[in-house]
């Protein structure tokens, strides 16, 4: 195969072969191979008319003849490779089976027909949906078994009829005109043309599940060589709506690039280079670190203590948050970032007291008042400088100050002292209860004598006096 390509008489750009071998082979050699295959003088494939019981099948070849010709003329030794090459040519629509919508090559007696040069994909067709609607509508007007719509074609016709409801009368008139023209042609010629037109649409509107070969780079390469190329219609009808083709070709000529356009592109690319980009691994590490840092503050991961008041009847958590004495967990969160201090009213008050001791409390008042404008692009450099200075200097000194450290330690000490106090109270209550006192009032449970907690108990006085 490659020996045949290198020995082909027409010049082939080497860049095509290096960049896209499939595009080079199909686009450059496909038409030449088909032309040579139809040439009887140079030993082409025998084209014949097959007679059946009540009809004739004109201008057909068998798949076996095509495969044998490819093996002989392309120096292919393996029949599988020859079938593959034939399938590539058939997938582009140069050859098509006369009784199947699936464009593939088989090494058997299946009948194939050559596509007309007008419908070759090398002409860079970009058919409109209006053309497809005219074609389907035209087939419904002809009462012939070979022109009946397949299921997927009937669905496409219904969809197009809904899409072009306003101009369907115009499409119907175009289809009628095409049918009148076709009826004037010879019967054999009309039969061949109908099959070639069907094969053309099998390439550009393939059967569901089949590969759409029009999505390849074949037309991109040709547009690069001819950027002024515009869309063209099969039946000379222009469509106002956007085509559903996978490759969009602009309807107007491309404007030539100017120096100003190049300068704008350079400026844009320079700005993109200066952007701070992070690797995905660094982003993942940052997200993991953030999640681990705030895991104890996430009620979905760590149950709140006390219970969440939104899902329980206990509002102790809200009372704690409203109190002026912050919890250790709350104080610890202030050390995460400067914004955490500003978001918490108690933390902001503590930070303000620290700044008052350094005679810089006016900075915090300004930051709190204008915090919503700091992230806007209209903020002045001086405003941003003051905010960054407080974030990097005052906030760092606040975390190292005795005021913040005392708040952290103060929340640890009462817990241990409360535990010891609770144990002492339990012991005192047990002793007092065994002696007959009320723990809360210090009153005797069995005596009717008035007693003040500041005076000794009557029984103890009487006992000592009796001694």
Automatic annotation (TrEMBL):
<keyword id="KW-0734">Signal transduction inhibitor</keyword>
<dbReference type="GO" id="GO:0009968">
    <property type="term" value="P:negative regulation of signal transduction"/>
</dbReference>
<feature type="domain" description="RGS">
    <location>
        <begin position="337"/>
        <end position="403"/>
    </location>
</feature>
<feature type="domain" description="DEP">
    <location>
        <begin position="41"/>
        <end position="116"/>
    </location>
</feature>
<dbReference type="GO" id="GO:0005737">
    <property type="term" value="C:cytoplasm"/>
</dbReference>
<dbReference type="InterPro" id="IPR036388">
    <property type="entry name" value="WH-like_DNA-bd_sf"/>
</dbReference>
<dbReference type="InterPro" id="IPR044926">
    <property type="entry name" value="RGS_subdomain_2"/>
</dbReference>
<dbReference type="Pfam" id="PF00631">
    <property type="entry name" value="G-gamma"/>
</dbReference>
<dbReference type="InterPro" id="IPR016137">
    <property type="entry name" value="RGS"/>
</dbReference>
<dbReference type="InterPro" id="IPR024066">
    <property type="entry name" value="RGS_subdom1/3"/>
</dbReference>
<dbReference type="InterPro" id="IPR036390">
    <property type="entry name" value="WH_DNA-bd_sf"/>
</dbReference>
<dbReference type="GO" id="GO:0005096">
    <property type="term" value="F:GTPase activator activity"/>
</dbReference>
<dbReference type="InterPro" id="IPR036305">
    <property type="entry name" value="RGS_sf"/>
</dbReference>
<dbReference type="Pfam" id="PF00610">
    <property type="entry name" value="DEP"/>
</dbReference>
<dbReference type="GO" id="GO:0008277">
    <property type="term" value="P:regulation of G protein-coupled receptor signaling pathway"/>
</dbReference>
<protein>
    <submittedName>
        <fullName>Regulator of G protein signaling 6</fullName>
    </submittedName>
</protein>
<dbReference type="GO" id="GO:0035556">
    <property type="term" value="P:intracellular signal transduction"/>
</dbReference>
<dbReference type="InterPro" id="IPR015898">
    <property type="entry name" value="G-protein_gamma-like_dom"/>
</dbReference>
<dbReference type="Pfam" id="PF18148">
    <property type="entry name" value="RGS_DHEX"/>
</dbReference>
<dbReference type="InterPro" id="IPR036284">
    <property type="entry name" value="GGL_sf"/>
</dbReference>
<dbReference type="GO" id="GO:0043005">
    <property type="term" value="C:neuron projection"/>
</dbReference>
<dbReference type="InterPro" id="IPR047017">
    <property type="entry name" value="RGS6/7/9/11_DHEX_sf"/>
</dbReference>
<dbReference type="InterPro" id="IPR040759">
    <property type="entry name" value="RGS_DHEX"/>
</dbReference>
<dbReference type="GO" id="GO:0007186">
    <property type="term" value="P:G protein-coupled receptor signaling pathway"/>
</dbReference>
<dbReference type="InterPro" id="IPR000591">
    <property type="entry name" value="DEP_dom"/>
</dbReference>
<dbReference type="InterPro" id="IPR047016">
    <property type="entry name" value="RGS6/7/9/11"/>
</dbReference>
């Amino acid at each position: 195969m490659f020996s045949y390509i290198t020995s082909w008489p027409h010049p082939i750009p080497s860049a095509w072969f290096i960049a896209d071998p499939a595009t080079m082979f199909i686009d450059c050699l496909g038409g030449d191979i088909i032309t040579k295959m139809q040439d009887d003088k140079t030993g082409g494939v025998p084209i014949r008319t097959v007679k059946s019981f009540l009809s004739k099948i004109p201008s057909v070849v068998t798949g076996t003849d095509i495969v044998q010709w490819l093996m002989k003329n392309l120096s292919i030794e393996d029949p599988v490779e020859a079938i593959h090459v034939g399938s590539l040519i058939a997938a582009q629509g140069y050859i098509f089976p006369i009784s199947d919508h699936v464009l593939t090559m088989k090494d058997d007696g299946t009948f194939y027909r050559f596509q007309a040069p007008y419908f070759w994909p090398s002409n860079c067709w970009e058919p409109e949906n209006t053309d497809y609607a005219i074609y389907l509508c035209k087939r419904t007007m002809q009462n012939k078994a070979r022109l009946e719509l397949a299921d997927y074609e009937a669905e496409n016709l219904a969809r197009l009829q809904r899409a072009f409801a306003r101009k369907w009368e115009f499409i119907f008139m175009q289809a009628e005109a095409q049918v009148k023209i076709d009826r004037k042609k010879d019967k054999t010629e009309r039969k061949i043309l109908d099959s070639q037109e069907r094969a053309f649409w099998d390439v550009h509107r393939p059967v569901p599940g089949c590969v759409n070969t029009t999505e390849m780079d074949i037309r991109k390469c040709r547009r690069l060589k001819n950027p002024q190329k515009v869309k063209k219609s099969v039946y000379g009808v222009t469509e106002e709506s956007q085509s559903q083709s996978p490759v969009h070709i602009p309807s107007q000529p491309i404007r030539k690039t100017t120096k100003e356009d190049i300068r704008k592109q350079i400026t844009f690319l320079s700005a993109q280079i200066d952007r701070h980009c992070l690797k995905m691994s660094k982003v993942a590490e940052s997200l993991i670190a953030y999640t681990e840092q705030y895991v104890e503050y996430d009620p979905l991961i760590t149950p709140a203590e006390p219970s969440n008041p939104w899902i329980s009847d206990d509002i102790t958590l809200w009372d704690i948050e409203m109190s002026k004495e912050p919890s250790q967990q709350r104080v610890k969160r202030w050390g995460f970032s400067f914004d955490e201090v500003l978001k918490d009213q108690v933390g902001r008050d503590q930070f303000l007291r620290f700044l008052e001791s350094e005679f810089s409390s006016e900075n915090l008042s300004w930051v709190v008042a204008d915090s919503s404008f700091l992230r806007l692009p209209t903020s002045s450099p001086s405003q941003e400088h003051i905010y960054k200075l407080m974030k990097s200097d005052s906030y760092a000194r606040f975390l190292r100050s005795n005021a913040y450290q005392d708040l952290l330690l103060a929340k640890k000490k009462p817990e241990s002292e409360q535990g010891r106090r609770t144990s002492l109270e339990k012991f005192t209550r047990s002793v007092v209860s065994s002696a007959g006192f009320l723990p809360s009032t210090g009153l005797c449970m069995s005596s009717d004598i008035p007693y003040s907690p500041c005076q000794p108990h009557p029984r103890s006085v009487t006992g000592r006096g009796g001694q």
